[in-house]
Amino acid sequence: MPFNRPLTSLVRPIALGVTTAAVLVGAGLSSAQAQERVRWQVPIAFPSHLVGLSTPVRYLSESLDEVSGGNINLRYYEPGELIPPFEILDAVSEGRYDAGFTWVGYDQGSIPSLPLFAGAPFGMEPPAYLAWHYFGGGRELLEEIYADYDVHPLLCSMIGPEAAGWFAEPLEDLDQIDGLRIRFAGIGGQVMERLGASVTMIPGGELYQAMERGTIDAMEFSAPAVDRILGMQEIVQNYVLPGWHQTFTTAHLLVNKDSWESLEPQTRAQIDMGCRAATLYGYSESEMENPKALQDFEDEGVNAQVLPDDILHELRRVTNEVQDEIAAEDEMFGRVLESQQDFMRLHGNWHVKGHLPRSYYAPEEIGSND
């Protein structure tokens, strides 16, 4: 026989392996049992089923519970269950809740620079924003901003560009904006005001009724997959693209500073890694669902209008005016804007020269040029 070892010589290593495995499992259980227990109530700004916007907080909650052996429990609550969605920063800052999940641009009234982190007009595309955030100084700037509010911010979700909104008629001229009652967020909302619109902020869960009842004439909220969930296509048939006002959209887990600093390093690392994973989850999910939702809209007769260059050029001109004025009044806004624009100049050279032009993106049918 080519292999003729005594049976006892085989049993010994097997037994040793079982014993080693048992020790490792025991050590793992011991580690899980020894880890601190975290029980946080987390109010969220969006209904938890919205693709890419809020589904990441569900992913975060479930992942942390599993990876910690049940020791880290972030229980999220739907908008309004604990507090109104626009009050999350104040509630976390004051320590009423350990953490909250929100679109930070909602607080631009008190912190003008936040929309630049939440979704900026004519800004970076998502991969570039992630590079700037993690490696270009963006995260440090955001932490500096929130330090004054005793809050530790964690990027915890990202999706690509939004749509530019739902309008009763195709948008052929920016003069049509004058006099509109429109729901529009962030710096883009200030651009709409400059063009003569009456801008209001309405939570996502109230938008369908507002449009149906005529409380507002037009609105923007998110990308196709989310807009489809809200049912806007049942009321309005003109869907304007691209999302010049938000070339990316983020959501953040805002953590009370004392709550964050009281955590053990292992727990902080798990939550940080969980948010990084949730960001990838949200972006990937939205990039899967948005093209399908847009196709469904078009199949159902929605007019998906792409804005012409002359309108985009004018929107960019007005955007630059608005941003320059804010920067002149708010030092931090100016610092963040300068940092982002410096990075865009650097990255733009690579993006233009290193990436294929968009006209080459969609594969051609075989034989289409024959």
Automatic annotation (TrEMBL):
Highest taxon of source: Bacteria
UniProt cross-references to Gene3D superfamilies, sorted A to Z: Bacterial extracellular solute-binding protein, family 7, Periplasmic binding protein-like II
Keyword Signal annotated: yes
Keywords: Signal
Record protein name field: TRAP transporter substrate-binding protein
